[in-house]
Amino acid sequence: MDRIDIHVEVPLVDFKELSSSELGEKSATIRARVAAARELQTQRFAKNKGVSINAAMSAKLVREHCALDATSTSYLEHAMESMNFSARAHDRILKVARTIADLAGCEKIQSEHILEAIQYRSLDRKLFG
Questions:
Q1: CA of residue 13 relative to chain centroid, distance
Q2: ∠ at Cα 99 (40, 26), nearest 5°?
Q3: Average of pLDDT values for 5-10?
Q4: Contact 68/76 with Cβ under 8 angstroms?
Q5: pTM of the shown model
Q6: What is the average pLDDT score of the chain?
Q7: What's the N-to-C CA distance of the chain in angstroms?
């Protein structure tokens, strides 16, 4: 599980939700946001041969492009200590947080991005912790 970037527990969907007439976000809207994030990543890594997406960042590029503010650093430090995350998990959390920030159109990783990325790592701790 440590080698998988995102872990998501998917609960059963309630019948009322399934039969609701309320519509979610359109696929075309999501596709446009993903395309914009991918283009941003392509531009970010234009000078780095062999790297075009956040997942392919080296440790050096992670340090360069995944800088955190004090609050986000504190959240990540707490998660690392309390959930016994590995060094590999640390870097993957940062890469996922960078991608979440890109999808949100944010230049810098915000605390909500790091918290969401940490949440995506918690399933392996529930199952194997």
A1: 24
A2: 85
A3: 80
A4: yes
A5: 0.86
A6: 91
A7: 11
Select from 99, 110, 97, 116 the least CA-distant residue to 40: 99
Is residue 35 within 8 A of residue 28, CB to CB? The reply is no
Residue 127: closest CA among 29, 30, 26, 2: 2
Residues 68-84: what's their mean pLDDT? 96
Is the CB of residue 39 less than 8 Å from the CB of residue 54? Answer: no
Largest Cα–Cα separation, the chain = 50
What is the token pair recorded at 103? 């999808």
Residue 60 to residue 67: CA distance in whole angstroms: 11
Task: Encode pLDDT of 89-126 as tens digits.
Answer: 999 999 999 999 999 999 999 999 999 999 998 765 55
How many C-beta atoms surround the C-beta of residue 114 within 10 A?
27
Residue extents of the structural domains in the chain: 24-128
Reported residue count of the chain is 129
